[in-house]
Amino acid sequence: MSNYGSHPKPNVVDLSFLDMTSLTEMAEKQEALSPDAHGPINAGALRICSNQFEDISRLYSESSKIIRVPAELKWLDLSCNVISSIPEEIASFRDCSVMYLHGNVLGNFRDLLPLGQLKGLSKLTLHGNPVEDLPNYRAFIILLCPSLRMLDFSVVTPQDREAAQFFSKAFDAATRQRKKKSDD
Does pTM surpass 0.70? Predict the structure, then answer.
């Protein structure tokens, strides 16, 4: 096994560019690509990029058909699909530290909230989604996922963290102001 930094290179299940539209197709495609593998395998990464997935709400349960312990996946590549929201189930991937979601159709912050449950998430890509055009995008994502070290292939700097804290305080103040006006 070759070195991957200071760690062994993880086994990768790569189901990219297979024009799948449903997560239920993953087991069939994996079997066709790896006929010698009987049942779920040990893997550290799952690549299902460049397909046509819209709904990933059953990602954990469907990936358990091809990966022995999906909760231990370190890397999920869901880029270049047509995903519009992140389901709560994403928290089941408790060991995920790298997630690629670029090139989807994620359009608002609310659809990203479940990402905040991934406490060890250190690298995240969201560029190429409509959400990146929203004001305070970078600050919001850094607040949502405080363990991030890289966002959209750019290092999260101390200045980014300061801007996120400023954004948080300004947002809290505006929320209190709106609440006070509605109470009056």
Answer: yes
